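Hi everyone, sorry if this is the wrong subforum. Our group has a chain we'd like a structural model of before ordering constructs, and none of us has done structure prediction before. Sequence below.
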Amino acid sequence: MPLADDLLEQVYNQLGLTNATEEQKYLQLPQINVALDAINQANLINVKTTGTINERLVELALRAYAPQSWYHLRRGNYDWLGDFGIGAYPLSVVVSVKSFKAKERLLVSGTGTLYAPTIGWGRFNDPTEFGLDRLKIYLFRGFLAIYMPDQTMQQLEPAARQLRNHYGQSLVRSIGNFGTDIRRALIPSGQAGGAHIINTSRF
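Answer:
Right subforum, don't worry. Here is the predicted structure as tokens:
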């Protein structure tokens, strides 16, 4: 078993989530993150393993809330683009998963266009990376939303927290709301030709 999965299993067992559904696990994301941070403080987890853990956490939400509409962006020619795609109207959405720092890697991920927009997701711990001017650049790069822990979001200046995306929805959002935001944006399968896709204007 990869180290990332072994550590997550330890956390799930500690929190009594071993037999929980993906949705139940994602709803406990704050507690999962606290447990992971404690492990990291006791014995530093390497960057690659941390990245895999975060991808697994995003996958929990995708499996729970959009089980038939997401796919992996496989490594190779597309590793610059992001980690997952979500079937959407009119075009797919890219989900770019990062760890604790956004740096330039988050900004340059995705397609760079609102026609195939990007969602950023990370356990970001540096609020200075998300000033108002910087967030406006993310909008220019076609980002629909950036998910981060509540404690980081609460440290942003009010104007940054209140910034809206191109559809009038919040750009900066709580990491715990990722799955429910997807569910809210899902197009009923009867209206989508049997597919489960999201309407980006609802996101």
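For your construct planning: Residues 3-202 form one domain. The chain has a mean pLDDT of 92.
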